[in-house]
Amino acid sequence: MKRGYLRVYLGAAPGVGKTYKMLGEGQRRLARGTDVVVGFVETHGRVHTAEMLEGLEAVPRRIIDYRGASFTELDLDAVLARRPEVALIDELAHTNVPGSRNEKRWQDIEELLNAGIDVISAVNIQHLESINDVVEKITGVPQQETVPDRVVRAADQIELVDMTPEALRRRMAHGNVYAADKIDAALGNYFRVGNLSALRELALLWLADRVDAGLQQYRAEHDIDSTWEARERVVVALTGGPEGETLIRRAARIAARSSGGDLLALHVARSDGLTGANPGKLAQQRNLVEKLGGTYHQVVGDDIPDALLTFAKAENATQLVLGGSRRSRVGSLFSGPGIGATTIRDSGDIDVHIVTHSEMGRGRLPRNHGSLSRRRKIQGFTLSVLLQPLLALALGLGGDRLNLTSDVLVFLLAVVVVALVGGRWPAMVTAIGGSLVLNWYFTPPTRTFTIAEVNNALALLIFVLVAAMVSSVVDRAARRTRQAARAAAESETLATLAGSVLRGETALPALLERVREAFGMTGACLMERVDDDELTEIWRPLASAGTLTCTRPEEADAEIPARDNLVLVLQGHQLEADERRLVGAFAAHAAALVDRARLSEAAAEAKPLAEADKLRTALLRAVGHDLRSPLASAKASVTSLRSDDVEWSESERAELLETADESLDRLSRLVDNLLDLSRLQAGVLPVFTRPMALDEILPGVLAELGDEGDQVAVDIPHTLPLVDADPALLERVVANLLANAIRYSPPGRPPLVTGSALGATVEIRVIDRGPGIPSADRDRVFAPFQRLGDTDNTVGVGLGLALARGLAEAMRGSVQPEDTPGGGLTMVVSIPTAALRPADTPVPGSRERSEKEGL
């Protein structure tokens, strides 16, 4: 079945019009005859948004009962049964109420896409998982609901719904986003101009990165090598020399001139004819690049200008920054065009900047590496052809002033020069050709190949042998030099790999990207064999970099085994034998990363189990008395009432029933605390917050405390803002703190509960006049089963405070102890207010209330 098409409207902030645009697209498709249904859309009381629903078929929502309240969610089964062509589903990052098939709404959408149904959805930039922490730093509001970036990036189409901060604030002021009583608070907090501008920039940059990735894929698929200047990318070439920092800072300034410009530092790993690469300097320069927001890359290449330009074109770079040559004027005379001149000549559309620095002109004479490239061999043969007739003419003009010995030495010098330039075979051609010229023109009898004297024949033979040996030595030296250069490049690459291991870099895609860049490949992928059948093997990609079209190792240009069931595959060109050996080191490291990641996942999965086991062990040790005591009291009361041996009066029967009831209530509270603490420790306690007033929970708290609750003084102003909390959990928090305060309050001085607003939070203070807690023991009292160390273990196992803090933190709040002025202890419960929550990011459980209040 063909997978459905996903379209996502991405907004910079709540209220920019994502849902409106989504419904507008639904109306357009409906007008074209497309079968469109509304799976789930939240209007938040906005009139214009609600008008866009007219004429669209809506699939009835599923009603789920949870913790005594009813919630509505997307009915996934109903949409699948209806099988429309297009489903409109709002709030991509929404968390479903427990009891739903999937935990997240994006998982519901995945099922619809797999069923071949096209989906149109919407999400705000603050809900993307990768930048959730950045948004919290900007706005001060944590976002509990997130969606993995990969889900949004995998969308077939992403459209940015943009609006200037000023326009959005005007829209809010007109009442088109929040209800009237929420506008002032929102404009002064979340929707400040600075916050909205930062969120807008985040959305634009995130979408630009996604568009850039699509552009690179398009260029790779269509074999486009020319530079498209859609975005400034500045590549700075580093040699590890002292001028590196100057080049990096200059390149960073060039990149900063264009908003969103990228800085890429590149080092070509090979032996440099001017200076060797200093590993310490390269490490410092890499740190500087990363500090300035750039990325460091390393490739292997014998031709530095070609390697630089190949990398720059592959990255669609627009500018290339090089340092001025360190060669002196004398050194320039002994070599061809420098790296800068060659790069400028071949750069094409890429702008090349030659940056001056203090090290220019201080280099040494270049050392001849004897590279046996094709160009040098051609130069050797050309020199051989030119030198022989020129030497013959020059020696012929000398007449009888030179003898045969001098002529042989001159031709031997020519052989050595040709050997130094072109290696063995051009030198051998020169030696043979020179012997023939000497024999014909300068060995008596001349003009014939006959040699009259044995001495002359011996001289020519020795000449040929010496020429052959010299050319062989020069050729061998050149080969050894090339091998040494290759080994140096490999060692630098392996040193970079080792450095990444020591720095703790564990991102498998980053490692594959490094392999792809270093060996000039178009794509790299680590594949795992997951299953075998009778006919073929099944391979699954674990991570990839670049563009890869193969789905099996044998379809790639190179496959390097990393382990029995892991293979590193590369696409682009065939690898040489020594390159395969080097890639093997990367493959082994990739396999180690996979093992490390899986061990970490196993450890993370085992940690909650270990904590749960630890909790159960402590529970068995701690609750023996506390379980037995209320059970024994209830059992004794019930047994006495059932006994026929004693006639109980009505007052005695009532007293026994009251004792049994109190014991069972005590037992019920203890079991509830134990279960909730166990869920907190295991990370499975469901929390569903909604806007609520504090006066909703206080009656229940006081009723739970019974007669002791009647003595508690309450001073909660009615003007406090709504808090964003789970009513049942907040009630437990306050009840446990009050029970602890009542236990230690002196007679005649009951606890006091007060409330006040502080910034974006509401503080509930539970104040007692008891003995208080020393500062050194304040953290210890929040540990589970802390009372195990007390001498009196008849009043509980010490779960109340631990549970109160855990439940408060689960609601993004806190519990902190303070000294009560005049003596005693004050427990401060901080809960975030509901006024700062963006209108189109409702928490589970708040939807019905939001619809009624126009949020």
TrEMBL record:
List, for all copies, the residue spans of the domain called Histidine kinase: 622-835
User: What residue spans carry the Basic and acidic residues bias annotation?
Assistant: 846-855
Q: Transmembrane region positions?
A: 378-397, 409-442, 454-474
Looking up InterPro entries in the UniProt record yields: HATPase_C_sf, HATPase_dom, His_kinase_dom, HisK_dim/P_dom, HisK_dim/P_sf, Histidine_kinase_KdpD, KdpD_sf, KdpD_TM
Q: Where in the cell is it found?
A: Cell membrane; Membrane
Region of interest called Disordered, as start-end residue ranges on this chain: 833-855
Q: Name one GO molecular function term.
A: kinase activity
Q: Where primarily located?
A: membrane
Q: What is this protein called?
A: histidine kinase
The root-end lineage is: Bacteria, Bacillati, Actinomycetota, Actinomycetes, Propionibacteriales
